[in-house]
Design goal:
191 residues; alpha/beta; Rossmann fold; 7 helices; 17% strand
Amino acid sequence: MKKKIIVAITGATGSIYGTRLLEILQTVDDVESHLILSSAGALTAKHEIGINKQAIESLADVVHNPKDIGATLSSGSFITHGMVIAPCSMKTLGSIANGIADNLVSRAADVILKERRKLILMVRETPLNLVHLRNMTTLSEMGAIIAPPVPAFYTQPKTIDDIVNHTVGRILDTLDISNANYVRRWQGLSK
């Protein structure tokens, strides 16, 4: 049985992380990707990386309407391996932290938390205010993994793609999905 991975793309900057994750998941035989693309996420992606909604949706195995609160993803009986929100807006973060399941992104995340599955939030905002930090703390205490896309410069990246691939590769590590082509592993200072 394939691992079902939910990828949500919200309106924060950094849509390249969600789209790159989907591109990589397409190459993994034992994964079935489920996409929830918010309308703000689609607008941001169009502006930032020039990809329209249809092109993003074509990267996923299954596409869910973010307004469909009754979709399969809204039930714990739908078994998934985990969920990644990339990028995760502060609005989405706050909704999840406070149990406001008013769309499929926040409802699916709520289900992931209650079922004790992996919820990875690539939060995108800086600087952070106290509400942001408290919401992150609340979610971390519930078991969510807060993984802002912070570049690793020890990899000596040459391009933006190098930075994005490494960051997405680390997300794949967290999901226990092999990705040797994307992460340059730390070898220590003596190497």
